[in-house]
């Protein structure tokens, strides 16, 4: 099969196995080129480990700290006729590289919200690692089936209180137009908190703690985005922001229960499969890329994660805010950086999109998420989409 990108709206429905593997190796090489993570984790569970920030968390733990890793994710396996999802290829490539390096790496491909997957993870930790000293919670999902009630909750990306009209870039048609988003009702807000809030993080820690598979000094971290003025109406002060606030509550609960030292980490805006689905974000991220690349402060997932480990999780002087969150969005939120973005924001048009913003970089990064546009990969080659993986 010749595998070329099939983009539909804000998703790409296929993925290139060799391109995905090359991306994983590139992130591993980045970590290997840094100093080892002093005092880093040894046995790690990463929930949401196959793409974006979770994959980078796993790579940084394994190759920066020699950690054994168990990864949990929900990805589509390949068939003779269809490629796998990118995360499937990423995880297979990660395991292969980890095994070559002599590191323990196993994965569960299943619904992390379910009791079954939690029980399976606990059994594997007991059998293979004994206990874990770091649990990374990096899920991004549009829906969640409550394991207690079987009810399916769907999240919404809507403002709260009043409607919001914003400039939006349609990445399919390259059109910039105003979109108006109607405010969420109470039910929608509650459902979004159910899906993206802290409840499932707490359920994981509770189950792991009751099973006795957390070390006494275990740490746990969940990821959030806060942003600034331009994104607040659709992110920080919107339904997703409300759900993310619930992570702060959960972190306090987990820490005070003595299960683990829990923190929320605030990461920067980046193109991932999840962020590309959020209105306003593609245009904002294209501007962030433009300004931060010019400033020399641009970072991808792996750079952010290396800093989270070395400047947050594994240092005696972490950069914490007043809500006890690790701040890795410091460079994005510098007032002078935000001022430049805010100045450019109203000036962007369809005509000057490629000059005023780094939409080119955004597009390239978006395709790269699915293994396309990666140097050294022959996209005209006829290859099999089948990659063997030993996921549970
Ligand atoms: P992503 O879409 O790249 O990764 C999501 C991961 O969750 C994948 O591994 C996927 O397989 C897994 N997943 C989804 N549903 C699952 C399920 N039911 N069971 C098991 N696994 C499941 O997303 P991302 O952008 O890396 O987001 C990860 C976290 O980082 C989220 O909490 C997100 O809010 C946060 N964050 C993202 C950004 C950004 O700009 N992308 C910025 C700051 C914080």
UniProtKB/TrEMBL annotation:
Domain Trans-2-enoyl-CoA reductase-like NAD(P)H binding stretches: 2-80
Swiss-Prot/TrEMBL catalytic activity: a 2,3-saturated acyl-[ACP] + NAD(+) = a (2E)-enoyl-[ACP] + NADH + H(+); a 2,3-saturated acyl-CoA + NAD(+) = a (2E)-enoyl-CoA + NADH + H(+)
Top-level taxon in the UniProt lineage: Bacteria
Active site: 235
Gene Ontology MF annotations: enoyl-[acyl-carrier-protein] reductase (NADH) activity; NAD binding; trans-2-enoyl-CoA reductase (NADH) activity
Pathway stated in the Swiss-Prot or TrEMBL entry: Lipid metabolism; fatty acid biosynthesis
EC class: oxidoreductase
Site for Plays an important role in discriminating NADH against NADPH, residues: 75
Enoyl reductase FAD binding domain residues: 320-383
Pfam families associated with the record: Eno-Rase_FAD_bd, Eno-Rase_NADH_b, Enoyl_reductase
Summary of subunit composition and partner proteins: Monomer.
Protein's job: Involved in the final reduction of the elongation cycle of fatty acid synthesis (FAS II). Catalyzes the reduction of a carbon-carbon double bond in an enoyl moiety that is covalently linked to an acyl carrier protein (ACP).
NCBIfam families on file: EnoyACPredFabV, PRK13656.1
Record protein name field: Enoyl-[acyl-carrier-protein] reductase [NADH]
Gene: fabV
